[in-house]
Batch of 2 targets.
Target 1
Amino acid sequence: MEKYHIERNTVQETLVIPLYGRKVCAEHYPELFEAREAARICDSLDYDFTEKGKAMESVAGLFGAMEVAQRHYDLLWEVRDYLKEHPEAAVVNMGCGLGDSFSKADNGSCRGYSIDFPDVIKIRNDILGQGEREDNIASDLLDFRWMDKIDSSKGAIFLAAGVFYYLKNADVIRLIGKLNERFPGAVVVFDSCNERGARLMRKTWLKEADIDVSAYFSVNNSSELESWNIGSKKISERSYMRGYRDIFSKVSLIHKVLIIFCDKLVRMKIVKIELLGEQK
Ligand SMILES: C[S@@+](CC[C@H](N)C(=O)[O-])C[C@H]1O[C@@H](n2cnc3c(N)ncnc32)[C@H](O)[C@@H]1O
């Protein structure tokens, strides 16, 4: 079987974290998480998972895996919810990596767009392919020409799972502002945490990645979101670990403590912004 190489020390390499995390989490908690496709994709990569595997054996590491698996669940919930009212909408996965959210949410009539850097899209095309209502778009998210390819005539939901941490705050604001200008009426959903969380995440998972942390995305409180100059908007937030379903009773005491820590001190949220267009 051909194995697909993932270059180390690149932002693209970060796509293995949610994939492998979901696989590990499903092994530990099969009643809570399902990740057969993620496991298949991990098997087809030419990537040494030993170090990540070891890290995920620790209590904190397994919690990290739980976080990415729960985030996948939360954002999928949002997409499915949106599709109930807009069954033919565009589902736009920004910084898709090798995630399979579209195929999981696919209701047979929506349209999927998956955007990532060219080398990621090349591997995605080979491993996951592209269905007839699906487009894989090779582009930097900050090169807004990719937006020309999105058919939002039946509505659009834009999701970003674990992606904005690799962009500067100002660029995230610019990106969402542009989405508001181009796709009024659409919805954007993404995960966020405060600066402490962003620092912790980098320390745990991104030691190898050559990323300058200053000025990168984080959200310290809801008034920060409200102050974003992105045009008219309606913002709501839910707890990342407990806002969509409560796995609290199913996890160990130490993981319960970490869930509370993440809720209260790291401010891990899923943010939903309804784009209302209009002037900034
Ligand atoms: C942590 S991974 C998350 C992948 C996927 N969303 C998931 O949950 O499995 C971050 C992804 O964002 C992509 N990414 C980061 N910055 C990007 C940018 N400026 N343009 C396009 N993709 C970007 C990376 O290449 C990588 O695939």
Note: The radius of gyration is 18 Å.
Target 2
Amino acid sequence: MQRRDFLLSSGAAALAATPLFALAADGPGFAPAPALSPIRARPDRIIDISVCTRPFRALGPRIEAERRHGKTIVHHYGHGGAGWSLSWGSARLALELIAATRERRIAIIGCGAIGLTTARVAQRAGLRVRIYCKERPPEVRSSAATGSWSPDSRICTDEHATPAFLQRWEAMTRHSFKVYQSLLGLPGQPIEWYDGYALSDVPFDQPTPGADEDHEPDYPDLEALVHDLRPKSQALTPAEHPFRVPHVRRYTQMLFNLPAYFRLLLDDFLREGGEIEQREFTSPRQLAGLQERTIVNATGYGARALFGDESIVPVRGQTARLVPQQEINYGLIYRGHNLFVAPRRDGILVQAQGAHDFGNDDTRPDRAASESAVERLAALFSA
Ligand SMILES: Cc1cc2nc3c(=O)[nH]c(=O)nc-3n(C[C@H](O)[C@H](O)[C@H](O)COP(=O)(O)OP(=O)(O)OC[C@H]3O[C@@H](n4cnc5c(N)ncnc54)[C@H](O)[C@@H]3O)c2cc1C
């Protein structure tokens, strides 16, 4: 069968069998190619473009308490490109600081990934929680994330990856991972796993042309600390995949379907008596007027303006979503072609990095950049 025919002929029935094939492929002597439906990648199928800034701190997230204006402020922000992934483990660290105040009723400023998860962790510990926030989902920045398990993404710089940081990061990562496994198989699939294909024109142990031109600092390679958490990627032979690319590996990845996951967090929070008050703070002094004496600052990038924390660097990111295709259950990474695709339920997510994202707080969508990424994706299916 021609590769093009192979790509286009696969249907839902074949896809339903893919997990079985994937399991069987690990055994000796049996490695059939999974049938993959093509992604209908066309610029006119873009249904949304989102832009947001990752709240990056070279030192890593700030999780510490301070006394101010007669309150205990537990700072909990600065999770870079890893906020969703680390949220449960990070919230557990914040809870230790909250618990030390012995207050039974707390306020949380912020209703993004970090604020809402901290709220759930506090509720599970028996605390009453009121969230104050300028925006709530889906308007928060967290809604514009990719939604991949990426606990090591822009979480600190190489020079700040001290042994103490590594230990803390590993504990956060492992705890989050554990919690996420308890959220699989729920209605709406807030969390799921998928197989993806990493494509490369050069062998994977060689850099791609232009790999050092991203104008970003050096980040530590943390994956090795938690390599046991997900299946190892596997090199595929040409018979095992439909792509006309010389080097292909199959990887397995955890995905957060953000609208369903946010809905789950919000529903659980409200069902357990949580309250949300929409309110913007323009100065930390306004926190003195809150009735709660322990206040969690989970304002993300907003902490830069509210608390004057200039250690937060914006790292711009833009994603586009294509009309959802239920039959697409695989992701793609095309090395050296600036293309990342995730099979989100609310639309096939296509991400491309900009040349100057680091330090860039421009949240205006660049439609041409997303269209160009979609065209690069389309080229994979038309070859
Ligand atoms: C393009 C992109 C892709 C990403 N992909 C991933 C990924 O795949 N996996 C992953 O784990 N992470 C990813 N991230 C990172 C992740 O999205 C962030 O780390 C996370 O969203 C930070 O959450 P947060 O709750 O701290 O901030 P936010 O979502 O920004 O929430 C802040 C909250 O505080 C409120 N607030 C702020 N200032 C004030 C104020 N002055 N007064 C009142 N309320 C205020 C806001 O209204 C909001 O409710 C990505 C980020 C980007 C930009």
Note: The first strand starts at residue 46 and ends at 57.
